[in-house]
Design goal:
Blueprint (H helix, E strand, L loop, with lengths): L2 H13 L8 H8 L1 H21 L2 H21 L4 H11 L4 H7 L6
Helix pairs in contact: 1-4, 3-4
């Protein structure tokens, strides 16, 4: 299932060297972190609105946009989906309450 994440991550790495005029992602990288974060905020809001509408196809579409832009953020920060998947694996089987308590004070 994570093969597509790896394929997208590879393309996102390639786009770091691309001309901003030739690629949406290269243009986003060129605009910097604030532009990427703004896009994630927009996509998160659209995901919430789609969920409120209750249309499954729309929810999937918006979550795909959110995930994509989150992958852009990870690549921009020198990270990748494997690190997120490893963290999810680490948490697997833990009680959510126990995991949160293990993070210490100020955990969200």
């Amino acid at each position: 299932m994570s093969d597509i994440l790896a394929r997208v991550a590879a393309i996102l790495e390639e786009r770091k060297a691309a001309d901003p005029g030739s690629s949406y992602v290269a243009k986003l990288y060129a605009k910097g972190l604030d532009a990427i974060l703004k896009k994630i905020g927009e996509e998160a809001t659209e995901t919430v609105m789609a969920a409120k509408d209750g249309e499954p196809d729309k929810i999937v579409y918006e979550v795909a946009d959110l995930w994509f832009h989150t992958l852009v953020l990870l690549a921009h920060q020198g990270l990748g989906p494997d690190q997120v998947l490893a963290e999810l694996e680490r948490r697997f089987g833990l009680s959510g309450l126990a995991e949160k308590a293990g993070r210490g004070e100020g955990a969200r």
